[in-house]
Amino acid sequence: MEKRKRILTALIAVTLILGTVSSVFAAGGKQKDETITVGLALSAIQTNSIFIDMRRAVEKICQEKGYKLIAADLLEGPTKMVTFLENCLNANAKVVIFQNIAEDAYADLLQRLKDQGAILGSYDNPTNIAHYTSQASNYELGLTIGRETGKWVHANPGSKKVAICGYSLLDFLVVRSNGMKDGFKETCPEGSIVMEVDAGYVQQGVTAGETFLQAVPDIQAVMGINDSGPVGVSEAFKAAGMSFAKNGVALFGCDASEDGMRALREKDMFKCTIYLDVVNQVLDLFDCCLDYALTGKYDESKANVYFPMMPVYLENADIVNRRL
Predict the structure, then answer these.
(1) Which of 13, 76, 146, 297 has the greatest number of CB atoms lying within 10 Å of its CB?
(2) Distance set, CA 154 to CA 144, 189, 205, 255 (Å)
């Protein structure tokens, strides 16, 4: 009788242990499927074509995997980032990809997310907190834009007057603009930058183009911190009856966005953009963070990745390729 009781007790214990293990495993698997929340914060994800491409690419992955996505537009600056990070904290986000526009302004929130277990990916600028960084040197990028513009202005007849589509609201874009000015002076010392206005997306570019035409009717070139501004300038110039054939005006952008590449292939005023492979870069950053969140394995070789910077003209436009 005593022996039978011991056997029965042992069987009950084993059953309880196995049941507990099964419950934990099931709960863990269920939690992994149901609670993965991804945060994505980029500038102008509703209005700038290259950031729209990035958002759509991440959205597609989240939809395929059943993840919840919290997306935020940082066009209005760091205050939007604070709200976004607070939302990620409240949602217990596991992966947060953010365009690092001014880390000092929200470092405490990033650290809280990190302490809470979120894997952080900093896009576009260096970081002291995030696990992974994918970035450009914005000054070097500006130099590249400015040099390409300057080479063209120096080699072609015209007023040598150039305007800039900048974006003063974000500090890193001011750094990029400063690089553009220095790069232009380097390759076209006889030229002059006569005006700079904020034009970070297409509609602002249209307004900027109208302003340029009124203030500098003999303008020879416009360069932008991205493609969207110069694309908008092109629309304004065309509306005024201008073309490259008639007026010899050239536009230079950055990002190799769909809008920029479309304008380039029109073979008119838009002459050059800079390919950073940014859509693929942000997807690779997302992949690294997601893999770390799911497996716990940190890939130190991808901790700090720099974008390539490749000037794209009509002749080499085929180098642009996106993993969408």
Answers:
(1) 146
(2) 15, 8, 24, 23
Quote the CA–CA distance of 164 and 229 in Å, as a whole number: 9
Task: Give the residue carrying structure tokens 């085929």.
Answer: 318
For residues 235 and 26, the answer to whether their CB atoms sit within 8 Å is: no
What domains lie within the chain, and their CATH numbers? Answer: 36-136+278-319 (3.40.50.2300), 138-275 (3.40.50.2300)
Residues 262-270: contacts with CB under 8 Å, at least 24 apart: 263/227, 263/230, 263/231, 263/234, 264/312, 264/313, 264/314, 264/317, 265/314, 265/317, 267/314, 268/234, 268/238, 268/243, 268/244, 269/234, 269/237, 269/242, 269/243, 269/244, 270/230, 270/231, 270/234
Render pLDDT for 212-246 as a digit per residue (tens, 0 to 9): 999 999 999 999 999 999 999 999 999 999 999 99
Q: How far apart are CA 282 and CA 43, in angstroms?
A: 13
Give the separation between CA 70 and CA 265, rounded to whole angstroms.
Answer: 35
> Phi, psi (5° rounding) for residue 49?
-60, -35
